[in-house]
Design a protein that fits this description.
mainly beta, 13-stranded antiparallel β-sheet, 5 helices, about 5% helix, about 40% strand
Length: about 900
């Protein structure tokens, strides 16, 4: 018959029980109470071992005596009566004392029916079931009864073993239970003893090796029991000698034992005494040589995996050989590269102290969703393998990875707290279980679950990996340290980096507001994304008007107000085809906020993602991205801070990053329908760079109208040779396609006075500093520009420069500043003697009004060729929209003439 252990259980259990050890106790004084049953108690308990050698197989002898009433009438042999009849007795045996009822075999164990038939022909317990003797002293007896003690078939439930004997004519059963609420030692209980026996004293010896021939003359036949076993012929047990009782394997610590008893008159009141137990010695003689094997359930690189962990302890053979030291502490360090799989957190629960019923004899009631592994323990004192499970324990601050090792089987209720320690920088896992119960463990198996949501991830690359271990014995000897190899040899073509990108607005209608969605995905085995740059299509804009920016401490912590929220994030984490999606249902949501200036960008995007995985919650991860705007094209680029690669020792393993910018009225489509793209530059954790892109194009651009208005006025200097100031106002019509280019040709009444081109800003000067003309000479400023847009709360405005050009005349540069900086460059030339200004690359963005003021007088660039008030002068404006529509208008140049002149 095969047996299996319970890793943590411990043999603590069964063995101890088979005997009722004893401790020395002080005798009580006189009793003057009424009723006299209140004086009932324990007079003395004594115990001795035939050897105190650790791991040896001793005979255990103990004596138990209750207090006697000196006022009672002595019986025929001079014994005084007890104060009351004993009802229940409990013996708490020291941990580590082991008894193995299985050495007798089930056929040799005695049944209740056989014990009760001791006086009938052919009745009585089998000869081979005897494990000791007991001498009974009772008030009603005229002498001493010497009775055999038998190993009974246990009744089940939480009774792990049962002893039985007959005290005169009264059957007595001793049930052995494990102290699951304490040290996993054994408690022997006698319940409802016969009130007529009036037990005074019992001296009991339990044999370390029941089949040893030294006990042949002590084996009683049923007919001899009736006579008190005073005479017994030598008779062998019918089986080979095997160790039944084994000393603890822990030395140098005081051992104690407590005895409690109650009487029939007051069954609820127990008198308890504790005393020392013989101290164990010779632990340095004990062998200790455990070994470990670890086998992943998947040998594929970068994949979800369980693990089969087996601990083996060498067994001793024969009654002359010492039992190996029992194991106290277990430490197993998995190889680097094996780490927790975030996907395992989906649906994962925990088991609380209340649910596991810690320190009680109640069965654990942990939810199945908290189970991490099945366990099986081979403890030879049990009738078969002990089966249990490993559950995730409730995390606590600073200590998130805790476990329970449980086994509610074979009458045992084991609940051992364990710890999973994780290197926060590398994710390497170390499992630690301390103070394993003192049990004769032969083998422990832990089978961590496999499948899509297995708790582990295998390393990213194939190869040999080493698991290290350290086992500490209860004997106090040196720990055993070693390592075992495992192999990852499948799916070795990992390590590439080729993420995919999908992006666009949900409704691409030109000029319409629509949510913008962005999704980046990566496959198992690829390197992990570490940072991200996104270049949005030209013309894809955002309405910042009315949205407060999250800044300062709130931006750093993610504690932004709801008013600055513009979207949300969804992320998939972990290995395998079923990753963990964050946010999890019913838990704290994610958010994307609009932030203020950051790392040189005028704006920023703040993504707040809860660091959650099942029962684990490590707060919020705040990832900030700077937003940069190209001043020539107004194209936006978003550059993220580095993504976390490991959180609290758990590698993130980003599989999907999905961003939804879904604030109503925020994202605005271009008004041009030419094909564009959302382009990304993704850097991996190992420095590789991938550049995925997603096509983008607005639709229905032709439906947009295009009819802007242009007004040009001149102020001062109306006569020939005068230098008037010029004001041009552009008013696009709301809902039209955005202005793409303008070419304005002034009438022949206006010439360019090159003599007034005094100072020109060089390109080097313009690019210096912030690159927006701040280093240009003041004399290179010839006007002022203001642009008002529905996208912004405040207008953009700034100086108008003359800047050096590759053409014969300098360029006219509009340098607009505000929330963002925009630069519009116009080429100045002459056509048929007139002045022409061409702006050919106006960003695709909605404008409400543009006001251009050019200086006059001594700083005026325009000189009149004739009296402006003498006739009407019209310019020619050729306007183009981003949807391809064109418009030519001839606005009048309105001089500042008086009413009479006009």
């Amino acid at each position: 018959m095969t047996r299996r252990p319970s890793l943590l259980i411990a043999a603590v259990l069964v063995g101890l029980v088979l005997f009722l050890p004893a401790v020395a106790a002080a005798a009580g004084g006189d009793c003057e109470l009424t009723p006299r049953s209140k004086c009932f108690g324990i007079e003395s308990v004594e115990a001795s071992l035939s050897t105190t050698q650790a791991g040896a197989h001793p005979d255990l002898t103990f004596s138990f005596e209750v207090k006697k009433d000196p006022e009672s009438k002595p019986n025929t042999v001079g014994l005084a009566d007890a104060y009351a009849s004993t009802r229940d007795v409990r013996f708490d045996l020291p941990p580590g004392l082991i008894g193995d009822p299985n050495v007798l075999g089930v056929p040799q164990q005695c049944t209740v029916q056989e014990l009760l038939a001791y006086g009938q022909p052919g009745g009585g317990c089998p000869n081979g079931s005897q494990v000791g003797t007991s001498e009974i002293f009772a008030y009603e007896l005229s002498g001493t009864l010497r009775e055999p003690v038998y190993m009974m078939q246990p009744p089940g439930g939480d009774v792990v073993a049962r002893l039985g004997f007959v005290a005169g004519i009264f059957p007595v059963f001793v049930d052995l239970k494990v102290r699951s609420e304490d040290d996993y030692g054994l408690t022997a209980e006698i319940t409802d003893a016969s009130a007529e026996a009036k037990l005074i004293r019992a001296d009991t010896t339990t044999w370390g090796v029941p089949a040893d021939h030294s006990h042949d003359t002590e084996r009683c036949m049923p007919r001899e029991v009736l006579d008190g076993c005073k005479v017994s012929l030598p008779r062998p047990p019918g089986s080979r000698p095997l160790p039944f009782l084994t000393n603890p394997t822990r030395c140098g610590v005081p051992l104690s034992m407590s005895v409690s008893a109650s009487n029939w008159a007051e069954p609820g009141r127990f008198d308890t005494k504790s005393a020392s137990f013989p101290q164990i010695s010779g632990c340095n003689n004990l062998p200790f040589g455990p070994g470990l094997t670890v086998e992943p359930t998947s040998h594929r690189a970068a994949s979800p995996s369980g693990a089969d962990v087996t601990i083996r302890m060498p067994a001793s053979e024969g009654v002359k050989v010492l039992e190996p030291s029992q194991m106290k502490d277990i430490t197993v360090k998995l190889p680097e590269g094996f780490a927790f799989n975030p996907a395992a957190g989906d649906g994962l629960e925990t088991c609380s102290v209340e649910q596991v019923h810690f320190k009680t004899r109640l069965p654990a009631e942990c939810p199945d969703a908290a189970k991490l592994a099945d366990t099986e323990f081979d403890i030879p004192v049990l009738q078969r393998n002990l089966r249990g499970a490993v559950y995730l324990r409730e995390p606590e601050p600073g200590n998130p990875f805790r476990i329970w090792i449980t086994a509610d089987d074979l009458g045992l209720h084991v609940k051992l707290p364990g710890q999973l320690e994780v290197n926060k920088q590398t994710g390497q896992i170390t499992s630690v279980t301390m103070d394993v119960p003192q049990a004769p463990l032969r083998e422990a198996k832990l089978e961590f679950k496999s499948g899509f949501r297995a708790p582990l991830i295998t390393p990213q690359s194939c190869g040999q990996y080493r698991t290290e271990y350290e086992f500490v014995p209860w004997s106090g000897g040196p720990p055993v340290k070693g390592s075992t190899q495992l192999q990852i040899n499948e799916g070795c073509d990992t390590g590439g980096f080729n993420p995919k990108l999908s992006a666009g607005t949900t409704d691409p209608s030109a000029g319409e507001h629509s949510p913008f969605l962005f999704t980046l995905t990566r496959q198992d085995g690829e390197q992990n994304p570490a940072s991200l740059d996104i270049s949005l299509p030209k013309g894809l804009a955002a309405t910042f008007a009315g949205i407060p920016r999250c800044e300062g401490a709130a931006a750093a912590s993610g504690g932004c107000s709801a008013a600055s929220r513009v979207g949300s994030v969804t992320a998939a984490l972990g290995a395998g085809p079923a990753p963990l999606w964050v946010p999890q249902p019913g838990k704290r949501p994610t958010a994307v906020y609009l932030g203020g200036p950051y790392k040189g960008g005028p704006l920023s995007i703040i993504a707040v993602v809860p660091r959650q995985a099942g029962p684990f919650d490590f707060g919020d991860e705040v990832i900030r991205s700077a937003v940069y705007v190209d001043p020539l094209t107004a194209q936006a680029t978003v550059r993220s801070d580095p993504f976390p690669q490991i959180i609290e020792g758990i590698p993130i393993g980003l599989r999907t990053i999905h961003v939804a910018i879904d604030r109503p009225g925020f994202t605005l489509n271009p008004t041009g329908c030419e094909p564009k793209a959302v382009a990304a530059a993704v850097t991996s954790s190992k420095g590789a760079v991938a550049k995925p892109s997603s096509p983008f194009a607005a639709v229905n651009c032709a439906k947009l109208g295009f009819k802007p208005r242009l007004a040009i006025s001149l102020k001062g200097g109306t006569k020939r040779g005068g230098h008037p100031a010029l004001t041009a106002i552009v008013r696009p019509r709301p809902g039209d396609a955005n202005l793409a280019s303008t070419v304005v040709t002034l009438p022949h009444s206006a010439f360019l006075d090159q003599a007034h081109i005094r100072t020109i800003c060089t390109r080097v000067q313009y690019a210096a500093g912030g690159g927006n003309g701040e280093q240009c000479p003041a004399g290179s400023i010839y006007g002022h520009i203001k642009a008002i847009s529905s996208l912004l709360d405040e207008p953009l405005e700034g100086p108008v420069y003359l800047r050096s050009s590759s053409h014969s005349l300098p360029d006219l540069v509009f340098s607009l500043h505000g929330l963002v900086d925009i630069e519009a460059v116009g080429r100045i030339d002459s056509i048929k003697g007139g002045i022409r200004a061409s702006f050919e690359a106006i960003p695709d963005a909605p404008l409400t009004k543009v006001v251009l003021d050019m200086q006059g007088g001594k700083k005026g660039l325009i000189i009149n060729s004739r009296n402006l008030c003498a006739s009407t002068n019209r310019a020619k404006a050729q306007l183009s929209a981003h949807n391809g529509k064109r418009l030519t208008i001839n606005p009048e140049l309105k001089p500042s003439c008086g009413a009479k002149a006009r």
